[in-house]
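Hello K.,

You asked for the raw outputs rather than the summary table, so here they are, unedited. I folded two proteins back to back in the same session to keep the settings identical. This is the first:
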Amino acid sequence: MPNPYPSIKRETQTARGSDANPAIQLFGRRFFGDQTVPEFLIEFLLVLSSQKRIADSVIPADESSFPNIELLCNWPEQTPLEYAPKSRLNLKLFALLGASKLETRHETHRLHYRELIKNIEQNIEAFGGITAEEVLKTLENLFLGFQRVGGQRTWCAQSFLPICPEMIAGETIWKGTKAKRDNVETWDEITIQSGYFESSQHIFLARGGESLYLQICNVLRIPQMDIDVWCKKIDASCTERERCPENLRRALTQGIHQALNTCPAVGSLAKFVDEEVDKETAKRTDNRNDLPRYTECGWCPEDTWPESFIFAIDLLRICDAALDPIERLSLMETACAMQVLRTLCAQSARYDQSKDSSGAGALGYIWAISDPEGNNNILKRISRRSVETNLLLIQRAIRHPEIVANIEAQQQRCVVQGTSWKDPYKEADTRYGYKLFLALAKRLGLMVPRRGSGARFILTDHLLRYLVLTTVRPGERMKYDTFLEQVFQRHGMALSGKYLCRACEWSGAHPPAALDNATDHWLTSMLSSAGMLVHLSDSCSIVENPFSKRVEIFP
């Protein structure tokens, strides 16, 4: 079975243990079906931008995004990563209460909202014919415009677009039933006493972002020699800056820091509303006994480092490119969701004992991509079979003999103890396994139709843009054939004739006789329309990343 990173005790012995589910035992703690695409990035950045602690080593939020290499390589045994997320209740209340459902607005929330408005208004100096009320309304609309996910939830369970660190907040769940039962009447009561605002349930920020963060920590401790060998295996043209763990760590830290600090004025306003107008709320919700309130991370499998290395390079190249800040965040969301899908398939390929992955790419699986319009029936059939093969791959992998033995041992303990037993495989398939892959791929636009049978892989304009930006370094060019090879190795995507033939063979079918090199006309057309394909001759084309390098982090 996979070794956990960090090396903490896995709770697999009881049916209610954190790692009892068979899919969690294979993929780590945890990727969960209810977590949306934006929330993977939000939680990843929440861990990255918060103060962290590993045993006695504290990493302040403003010092580094990732622990130093020495600490990553010598992580203390049985010690989880801890981070101290901020709740930012004042900011959420100010921006989101007015847009939340009426039934979720408790009287204590309304009272504190009025008090917050009054205090902010007292700090506004209006001039030029503009009133303080108008400034206040504009400020409220500004923050409401950055609402990213959770519009149907209670105001405190919603999340902002992570346009700056001051707007990245941890998950907070309002316990309305408990508040009604206890008949609480003031904001002080519900913030001083615990149990009314719950911040440790991981319902929406369900640990997927934590796992992605740990995956990058895991790859940063891999010796450069091993990374060099793997890059040579897939013929990846990675620079020293990308292959050297220390350089990669520094570049990622600086790149993500710059990506999160493109709107410092908005960050200053958010900090003012959340921490300066009412300092007591932040102290009560972010601390416990006058110390930062830490949350424990789970673990990721050690052997997922190859796909984690690709994920780190994807993020770095997105941060390097000269992009609009909002588009950069959208591409980073895509990178996080693609990494979840890539991890599910690559890890399954390692542990599915009945599948020969020798014909696949470096990660052991293949996604056969069809034309978005569905005009080529041959491509549609190949892609549909590819979807079915990948779903079956994930389903079989979580039924690895060692995992099955763990589940049977749990069942025996329940029989001995006289407690109820429920087969965990249905939940594993639905919320952590192949149905998670299916649902997330459809949300991302990688798979259509959204509902019904006949699911197949496609590329949208956004996904194609993501592939070019992460495969070709900013401002550089790559031969079209090399681009197809790199996409196949880095993502397992088959986009043209010879790779589609390999996809057929991997799926257990013979390539159709009609399959030829003309199957990628749709792809060249999309690249040309996006201004990313340069035709040098009838036999040679170049894929270009037109987004030049934003900054030169290292000379």
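The second followed immediately with the same parameters:
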Amino acid sequence: MTDEAKGVLRDAHSLLGAARDLLADHRRAVSEVQGALKPLRVEAAREQLRSIPLARLKDVTDGRLRLGPLEEAGFTSVADVLEATRYRLQLLPGIGPQTAQQLHAAAGGLAEAAEQSAGVRIDVERRDEVTTPLVVALHRLVNAGPELPRARAAAQDVEQRFGPLVRDARPLGSWWRKIFARPARRERAREAVGRLAEALRGAEGARLLMSQGSVDLLRPHVSGDEAWIDFELRASDYQTLLADLAALVPEREAAEGFLPGDLAARVKHQPLDDGFRRVSLRGYQSFGARFALVQRRVILGDEMGLGKTIQAIAAMAHLRAQGATHFLVACPASVLINWVREIESRCKLAAHPLHGAGRQTALEKWVGDGGIAVTTLATLHSLDVPEHVELGMFVVDEAHYAKNHETRRAQAVAYWCKRTENVLFLTGTPMENRVEEFRSLVAHLRPEVAKQIRPHDAAVGARAFRSAVAPVYLRRNQRDVLVELPEVVHVDELEEFSRADARAYRRAVADGNFMAMRRAAYAVPKKSAKLDRLVELVEEAAANELKVVIFSYFRDVLATVRDALPNARGPISGDVAPVRRQELVDAFTEAPGHAVLLAQIQAGGVGLNLQAASVVIICEPQVKPTMETQAVARAHRMGQVRTVQVHRLLTPGSVDERMLEILQLKARLFDEYARRSDLAERTPDAVDISEQALARQIVQEEQERLAAS
């Protein structure tokens, strides 16, 4: 028995030591990140303190501090006090040693609070001796891979379970301990050895996980250049980890989509199995996946760039761990390739693209093997799946395309919604123009909830609307949950018509041709003011080695731009096959330095990931407010590492001005009812205006204006 006990104890000690080594290695790696964060936090805090007036010092003291001498000496902010020595403060008239100490202590307290709350983001343009150590320290943890959290969880479990048992079993580890142990202690030791032997038989998986995790964490540091290169390739992974380690957490209610408290509590208590997932989730993403699992039939309406695809994959991976085997994704053809790539890289489930010449073979393999089938909304109706195949989840991407129940694709979506218990709609703009359209979308999922969304809810106000849709609808915005996202700088480039532009515009107005009015500024390329400015912007981007994506609604405008920029790639347009679209995006992303990509805004603005671009040029304003938002979000999304510049080319005194008025009206309306504004002054009439009526109104107004001029 002693030899057997020794063997059990030896194996248990070995496993426990491996667990403790892994946890210690991880603590050291995290400590290196925190150490590298310190100077950046101090710097960010000092910058914040420069904007805090002196008067705030009274708020953190008894209020009797004399600030007059400081103001007379030119001190304006808390940072000025902090950067001055106490000796220098004492030299000021009216400030003695005690007051100087109080001032410095108060400023120090504010500095400490500012450091704790200071947001830190990695700026790819700042490769200095302060930021580079942080990127190098993060590199080790990022490259430990998505299995590291599971390895740590296994190590913590081993430490919690084996630690007490190893202590209890120690008397049987040697003859002298056994002799000197009391009978009750020896009995407890025998029980502990038995439990250890049983636990060791099921611990091989944990041992392998911890072994790989330790190897990854003990890799030597790479050079700064190598770390920066890896950062640019996988910025999202770095920023996610940084947000976690720096405790850069978004406002809780914002991350939970401002759901009612009882529903949010149920969502947070929903388990989320990660056994079939290869990617870590941000807090709001985990919440979104749990929301889909708790409510079963929902719309995830997060703003573009927040990772709706990842949340859907996380929900499917959880259901796979619970025993479900078959899943179906329906999406526009333009993003099918992207879905397949995301599934293959983000989870362990097989992806089966049911599209193109090999569709039937792929369908048979999916039916037989299980996994995630990806098909297009256009071909969903022709999908012949045996009745015995039970879906774990049906996902519809860009689900607003199914809002019209009379269309074939909407009827196909409705069929699969009825056949599936768990349904997840993904769309950033489900309430694009009319509340009625949003209700139609909800009707696919929860008819009883759709009946509660009355047409006049919009007139009552945003709170009533959100209250009605809370059980089925979750939306978060970038500014609320992506604390590290770089800024978007919007610039309206106003270019007066040239004489040739003006003549083309007048002809279009006289003909009542709304579309010709919108593209008149490019009708005579050699004399186009807008085109000249566009070329200037591209040349400026080239000088700074920045990538540019150029959007227009019109193919002939893009052809004109292509003639002016012969090295531009594309255009991506509606008639370009999805595979070719992805090839164009990949080539654009992988091109070293400066590159230009052309895209129709209705094609390139949906589904594709263009975060390699840091300059976006929009050739003309769009009718739909969401179209421009989606296009910008293609570049300004999670993982972007540079500030995104958005240049919109406009001609004053033209259709552009009227278009902007409409855009602003629609954007306000969407903010009020699909986001979280409490305004309630708008009427349903503003929602229901059609694009045809809008065009007629603008043409008529421009004809009257030009006739009077």
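Confidence is low (pLDDT under 50) at residues 675-689.

Happy to rerun anything if the numbers look odd on your end.

Regards,
P.
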